[in-house]
Design brief:
Strand order of the largest sheet: 2-4-5-6-7-8-9-10
Shape: globular
Oligomer: single chain
Number of helices: 10
Strand content: 15-25%
Structural class: alpha/beta
Radius of gyration: 18 Å
Distance between the termini: 34 Å
Number of strands: 10
Length: 299
């Protein structure tokens, strides 16, 4: 078996399929103006296809509908190495690298958190690693005993984003106030993104006023996500990004099936309707915002 520590391309995670429909949905109508998927996890194998879709297949399907690049995000040492490899090997990929807040307590318990963050520091020096992420706080899955490690890790990742002058992608689950307070206390990186924004209109106003970007995923289409639609409505257009968080958060009406970057158009068209904007105008804005945060995909 190939060792992912020496050959990052060999790393793969397999998503639990359970009883859900694991067939990939048909491709949506292509977008009139090219956009980017601001956050995905393409190292995770999903879907009914034997072995899942390869990275090239994912990127080709996306390009065919006007999604011309992706930001591939890590959450531990192995997936961060894979993300950096993918970006170095594929001109349509940029990478984000980090220790996920739910992984930080496990590393800390083994006395490995400092070492893990040192690996992220090394990866962040690579030219096509353009973000630290996903990092942040998660008060939903981690109990009280794990919170000190989460906070330590989050602040260390903030420092890395500043050190390398790259963006930061935040994971925030049930921790809105704590995340905002931490960013205000220690100082946010110049380009700070709330990945899969999960707050409401009030939080969106605060984040936008501070110069942060809000990235909306397929869950903005969910029936029970009015708070996300309210947040989208009050976010300045120049602060909006779009993502899949693939293979998770597949937009309605495809919810539960495998998600992938080629399904970004479903969410973009929904967002355009919510905002009362022409689809091409929103696409152009999303593309410009993405390049402002992460830089060019071709350099």
């Amino acid at each position: 078996m190939t060792d992912p520590s020496t050959d990052p391309s060999s790393y793969v995670r397999v998503r639990e399929k359970s009883a859900r429909d694991v067939s990939y949905p048909p491709a949506p109508e292509p977008l009139p103006v090219a956009v980017y998927d601001n956050h995905c996890h393409l190292e995770i194998e999903d879907g009914a296809e034997e072995g899942g879709l390869s990275l090239d297949e994912q990127l080709d399907r996306a390009a065919a509908v006007g999604v011309v690049g992706v930001v591939q995000a890590g959450g531990d040492i192995e997936s961060s190495r894979w993300s950096a490899w993918a970006a170095a090997s594929h001109p349509r990929v940029l990478a984000a690298v980090a220790i996920h807040p739910n992984e930080a307590p496990a590393y800390a318990e083994q006395g490995m958190l400092d070492g893990a963050i040192a690996v992220i520091d090394e990866l962040a020096a690579q030219p096509r690693v353009r973000a630290i992420g996903e990092t942040g706080l998660d008060y939903f899955r981690t109990g009280e005993e794990g919170l000190p490690a989460q906070h330590e890790s989050f602040e260390a990742h903030i420092a890395l984003a500043k050190k390398h002058d790259i963006a930061m992608q935040i994971h925030d689950r049930d921790a809105h106030d704590a995340v905002l307070d931490t960013l205000e206390r220690v100082g946010a990186p110049e380009r700070t993104v709330f990945h899969c924004f999960s707050g409401g209109a009030d939080m969106a106003r605060i984040a936008a006023d501070r110069g942060y970007w809000l990235s909306f995923a397929g869950n903005v289409t969910f029936k029970n996500a009015q708070n996300l639609r309210d947040a989208l409505a009050v976010t300045p257009r120049e602060r909006i990004l779009v993502e899949t968080d693939a293979p998770f958060l597949t937009p309605t009406p495809l919810r539960g099936r495998p998600n992938a970057p080629y399904l970004v158009p479903v969410t973009v068209r929904f967002m355009a309707a919510e905002l009362g904007m022409p689809v091409d105008e929103l696409c152009a804005q999303l593309a410009a915002n993405t390049l402002e945060v992460y830089g060019s995909f071709t350099s």
